[in-house]
Design brief:
It is a single chain. It contains ten helices and 16 strands. It is of the alpha/beta class. The model has no long low-confidence stretch (mean pLDDT 96).
């Protein structure tokens, strides 16, 4: 198998990636991005539909007579981070940047789409899915609710993400749980304010919140089985305005992660019990906003093994990392995998600054590698009958 891109295709992919890097847009506001993607797809001669999930784009390539159909998905949104890379193609939108490599994901899929339009090695249909709002806002779910798989049916769907922890030229995926489920909590503790020198005259919400934050760590340590995976992280605490005043209230937020649904249920139950119990014991009141955002990303074993075989066939262009372990990070591609069999793949970025860093930049050398993998998946999945 040799789905290598030409030098011209690689140069175009780099140019597209850098053009997209300049115009980062947040969830459901990817209007420039969507227009850029749609224009390129139409220029390749593909059938293009826009507006799914708000700003999503779906392009269709059909060759031959087979009724087999696959979907290949890239995410489009950026993050609310001020870029600090100093690049000559840095973000032109203040306070926003492609700090997670979605610019690279789009460029890889665009390059693969154009390459596949000229390929004589597919018999079937490929859906190129460009999804909004992967970062926290569930764009995959919204596209599905808009009829993604009813209007554009697929037999299997595949997603890809760059992974800085993997060396360039390597890829990996599991045959089961790949990324964790994701929830958030927002806790407000209300007490009774007092002078800092006379705490006995009030009910201290700060002291209460300290106790809650410590007790929350016992959920993973003492309630969840050591054989399971769980994370409970407090990430913000806000309260008070003066060094000598105990405030009347304070607020804490954070995130939780899990794989098994029963563990997710346990975390929610214990978190709510701890918050209400500690607050009552310390003479305060607490309100809790608890939201389950994304389910766990679970690769279909058959489709995951298929992709692993594709990667092995691509050697030495791409090498399979046989030791990949699941991540406690989350990914809304999980919603697509709940609807259709498929797999989620990590492709090596080759180090550098980590995802969601203001100094992160997608490695352009990974573009031809990721695009070649997309092409190989399509050509093997939709190979013409002998």
């Amino acid at each position: 198998m040799n789905p290598r891109l030409t030098n011209e295709e690689i140069a175009d992919a780099i140019a597209w990636r850098r053009a997209l890097h300049r115009i980062p847009e947040l969830a459901y506001d990817e209007h420039q991005t969507s227009a850029f993607v749609a224009e390129k797809l139409r220029s390749f001669g593909l059938e293009v539909e826009t507006g799914l999930g708000g700003t999503g784009v779906v392009a269709t390539l059909k060759r031959g007579t087979s009724d087999r159909v696959i979907g290949l998905r890239a995410d489009m949104d950026a993050l609310a981070i001020t870029e600090a890379t100093g690049l000559d193609y840095a973000s032109e939108h203040p306070g926003r940047m492609h700090a997670c490599g979605h610019d690279g994901h789009m460029a890889m899929l665009l390059a693969a789409a154009r390459h596949l339009t000229k390929s004589g090695r597919i018999d079937g249909t490929v859906r190129f899915i460009f999804q909004p709002a992967e970062e926290n806002e569930g764009g995959a779910r919204r596209m599905i609710e808009d009829g993604l798989f009813e209007r554009f049916p697929v037999d299997a769907v595949f997603g890809m993400h760059n992974w800085p922890e993997l060396p360039l030229g390597r890829a990996g995926l599991t045959t089961g749980p790949m990324m964790a489920a994701f929830g958030i909590f927002d806790i407000t503790v209300t007490g009774r304010g007092a002078h800092g020198a006379m705490p006995h005259q009030g009910a201290d919400p700060i002291a209460c919140m300290f106790q809650i934050g410590t007790a929350l760590q016992t959920i993973a340590a003492r309630n969840v089985s050591p054989m399971a995976s769980a994370v409970v992280s407090v990430t913000t605490v806000h309260g008070g305005d003066a060094w000598n005043v105990i405030p009347g209230s304070c607020r804490m937020t954070g995130t939780v992660r899990w794989f098994a649904p029963a563990v997710g249920d346990l975390i929610e139950t214990r978190l709510k019990a701890i918050v209400s119990g500690v607050a009552e014991a310390m003479g305060c009141a607490a309100t809790i906003d608890y939201q389950r955002r994304y389910p766990a990303t679970i690769n279909n074993p058959q489709e995951a093994r298929f992709v692993q075989d594709v990667v092995r066939d691509l050697s030495p262009v791409l090498t399979l990392d046989e030791t990949i372990e699941p991540s406690m990070g989350a990914e809304d591609f999980a919603f697509m995998l709940q609807e259709r069999p498929g797999a989620y793949i990590w492709v090596g970025q080759g180090g550098g600054h980590g995802l969601h860093s203001p100094t992160y930049n997608f490695n352009d050398d990974a573009l031809p590698v990721g695009a070649a993998l997309w092409v190989a998946i399509a050509e093997k999945k939709l190979a013409p009958a002998a």
